[in-house]
Every structure is written in structure tokens, then in C-alpha cells.
Amino acid sequence: MTRNIVTGLDIGTASIRVVVCEYKNGSQVPQVIALVKKNSRGLRRGYILQFDEATASIKEAVQEAERIAGFKIKSVILGVSGATLESRIIEGGVVVSRADSEINANDINRAIEATEGGLPDTANKSIIHRVPIAFKLDGKKVTGRPEGLKGARLDAQVLFVTYASNHLKDLLSATESAGVKVEDVAASPLAASLCLTTKLQKTAGCVLANIGSQTTSIIIFEEGLPISIRVFPIGSTDITNDIALGFQIPLEEAEKIKTGEVDANTPLKKLNEIIEARLSDIFEFIENHLKRLGRNGLLPAGIIITGGGSGISEIESLAKDYFKLPAKVALPAVSTSSRNQIRDTAWSVAYGLCIFGADSEVEESMGLKIARETKYNIIRWIKELLP
């Protein structure tokens, strides 16, 4: 009997994480078989700078996962992040094709495809996801899918998630050079949201902020669907560096002070000022993006914080004061969604990739279902460019 195995590969700037899961008959939650974390080499802010070093570190992580799982890992779902990961909402439409004016699946697909022509600057970008977020029929908003309705013109509003083609090519090449096939690609913020946000939060409206080592990524949900993905070139390492400079101490000690692992033998007021100043810089990036979308102060489910930076003391209250929104660290969510097999949100991207790549019937958000139905298959043509 063939086992339904899915492996998520999260290649971060500071570390590489591999989660191997098995979906068993009758279970909607995958069983975690292996969790592996290895230090990354050859990357900066999510991009490969030294190909051989990056490939070697990926290979080490995969081989360790194989040792723990007890079998050969043949393929992975790859998460992508970095400052060139971004999204844009584009509108487009078509005339309904049938003589009786009834909309069918072909009309819906044509309307979605028509939006792609309005996407600017695509020469050096790859489309990772196409997510339809709204439809209009003869200028009026449609609730749900428009199939079966009658009208003359169908317009679609689609969220395109794109990534720099050269960076994607490097990640695919390094992963496959490490000995595993890339079965699919998913934006890391989307993957993390699958195990860190609830249907209620996404329907009400929320932002999931992943404060990584060198970048901060966000995904914003409204009415159950993702409406924006963005990555900013600032992370928790910047806070560590500020503490080290401010108190003239080693980076290792600064990191432990930042996360509260050791008591700070430093003036507490100055320490809080340093942390709050850099967190304010991170929050400012997020707030400015929310303002551009017209969503600042208007997301009832607030901001959900994850990643290495989420371990900073008092981050919930600081975020609540800054955004004037509810704020919480996402720690309990990943534990609940993995049946207590995973308790650290740092694994949320790799674990979420396993959910994204599952072939079994799992409880999915509407956003994931639509993304899977209409995803833009970039794997084949990118591989054709590989040496």
C-alpha cells in the first residue's frame, strides 16, 4: 500500500527546516514523521549568494530528515520568500460566450486569464499563485462563484503573487542539485497561514506577520481570502545587532537577552528603548502597507505575530499599542493544528507546506481551494531554464 507522504522544505536565511508528514486514511490532520532544522549557508535575506554552500546545507537537512523518517525523500513542496515576493490585485473581464448568456467554467477561466494582461513588469517575474478574490456580472458584485448565472459580461478580480524569476531559478536548481524533486512551490506567508490562522480570523480580516531573522513577511486576509502578500527587508537580527552595538556585547549574548533566555545585566530602560525602536521600524513597514490598501485600523481579527521575532517580551502589547488593533502571538495555533506535535511557530512554514501539498481530503480555507484550482504551473518552464 502506497503511503501518502508530503515533505515541506523551508529555506530560510538563518536556518533550513524540513517537515515530513504522512496523511492516513480518515485523518484530516497529517502525522509528523520528521522535523529537521539545519543552519543555512550561502543565503542572505532569503536569496542564494553562494550556490554550492546553499546546496550543501539543503542536502544535509534532507538527508537528516531521511534518516529520521527511515525512507528516501523523493520530492518536496518548496516555500519561497524574500523581498521580491509580492502581490498585486488586477481586474479584467470577458464577454460571456454562450448564446443563452449562462456562465460556465470556461467563461470563469477566460475572465481570470484576461486579468493577467494587466499585470505590469512581468519580464523578470514568475507567477506563483493566481487567486480570484471577486467577480462582477454586468457590473454587479457576485456572491460566491458565478457559474450558472446569466449575463453579458463577466469581470474578475485576481490576486497575483509573483517572485523574481532568477531567485526562483536559483532555489529550484539548488534544491534539485541536493537530490530531491520540487513537486510544487508556494509562497511562505500563504503556507504559514494554513496552520496559524483560523477561518474566523480570515473571514473577519487579519494580518499574519512573520518576523524572521532578516526579513518580515505579511499576508493579509479579508472575507476569507488573501488580498495581499509582502516581504520587507528587516527582521529580528536587526534587533540583535542593535542590542550588541548599544551595550557592546557579543551577538550571542545579545540574542539571548532579546528573547529573554538570560537576564539582561544591562539597564532595562535602555534595553527596552532599543527593542521598541527597531520593532517600531518593522511595524512602520506593515502599517504603511496597510494604509496603501486602506486597511489600517480596519482588521477586526487584528495582527497575528509569528517567526523568531515573536519571542520578544511584550511584543503583543507593543503591537496592540502601535496598530490600535488586537494583537497576539500565534504560538497556540500551530500546536492545535498539528495535534501538539509542533509547539514552535518557527516550523509553521514547513508544516504549512505539507498541508498545501496534501493530496488527501483536508479541511481547507477557500483561499487554498481556489489557489489549487487555478494555480499557475511555473515549475516546468523554470526547469527548462536550468543548466
From TrEMBL:
The keyword Magnesium does not apply. It is a peripheral membrane protein. Residues 6-196 form the SHS2 domain. Belongs to the FtsA/MreB family. NCBIfam families: ftsA. Cell division protein that is involved in the assembly of the Z ring. May serve as a membrane anchor for the Z ring. This is Cell division protein FtsA.
